[in-house]
Amino acid sequence: MFSKTTIVAFLTSLALTSAAPADEISVRQAPAEIAPTTVIGHALADAWDNYCSAPTSYGYIARNVWNGQEYGQTTLFTFTYPAASAGKQCWLDFYHAQPSWISNTNGIQVDVFTSWGENTCNAGDKSNKRDANLGRLNVPATGAATWAAKYSTSLTQKGPCKAPGSVERLELVAVGDNTGLSYPQGPGAGLRILYA
């Protein structure tokens, strides 16, 4: 029989030699997410005033062309980087969860733009302040979107998070004619900034 001391020494040795390094463990941890603080509906062609949605409700984007006129809606998001993201890597994520609607069950494409200024729901505000196109997402009927094209390295791949308190303003725009989707926006769904 082995003594109690021998067994404890053996188990301690086994634990020390089989434990993964701390940096490997942190890589395997699930990323945290930054949820939008504002979600605003914006009419294509500035047809009506912007309107606010609850940050944890449904998002809707669509583009339709009828009699040569463009109709539809984009969604504007504001994100604020938290203290917990300091020193971490950040990237954009879109997860199309159910229940939802999509114009093509094979998926659609969505462009992601930055906004150069603050978007509001104040009466009379019809602007989206569209700026740079970060890239184009392939959005499936259900599941995680993938990048079809990247026009910037900002948020289209892992990179250093902005300083805590910094603000990120983004816009989702449907690509093509007569296309669109609705989706739940909330923890684990919709547009988020992930960090790890």
Describe this structure as you would to a colleague.
The chain is mainly β and about 200 residues long. The chain has one domain: Jelly Rolls, CATH 2.60.120. Helix content is about 10%, strand content about 45%. The chain has two helices and 15 strands. The protein has helices spanning about 5-20, 20-30, and strands at about 30-35, 40-45, 50-55, 60-65, 70-80, 90-95, 100, 110-115, 130-140, 145, 145-150, 160, 165-175, 180-185, 190-195. Strands 2, 3, 4, 5, 7, 8, 9, 11, 13 and 14 form a ten-stranded antiparallel sheet that branches. Strands 1, 6, 10, 12 and 15 form a five-stranded antiparallel sheet that branches. Keywords: Signal. This is IDI-3 protein.
Which tags fit this structure?
Jelly Rolls, single chain, mainly beta, five-stranded antiparallel β-sheet, disordered N terminus, 196 residues
What is this entry, summarized?
The chain has 196 residues and is mainly β. Helix content is 11%, strand content 46%. The protein has one domain (29-195): Jelly Rolls (Sandwich), CATH 2.60.120.
Please specify the SSE layout and strand pairing:
Blueprint lengths: L3 H15 L3 H7 L3 E3 L3 E6 L7 E3 L4 E9 L2 E12 L8 E8 L4 E2 L5 E8 L14 E10 L3 E2 L1 E5 L8 E2 L6 E8 L4 E6 L5 E6 L1
Antiparallel strand pairs: 1-15, 2-3, 2-5, 4-5, 4-14, 5-13, 6-10, 6-12, 6-15, 7-14, 8-9, 8-13, 9-11
Q: Work out the strand percent.
A: over 45%
Q: What is the C-level CATH assignment?
A: Mainly Beta
Helix segment count? 2
CATH architecture descriptor: Sandwich
Would you count the extended β strands for me?
A: 15
Classify the secondary structure makeup into a structural class.
mainly beta
Structural domain count: 1
Task: Supply Rg.
Answer: 22 Å
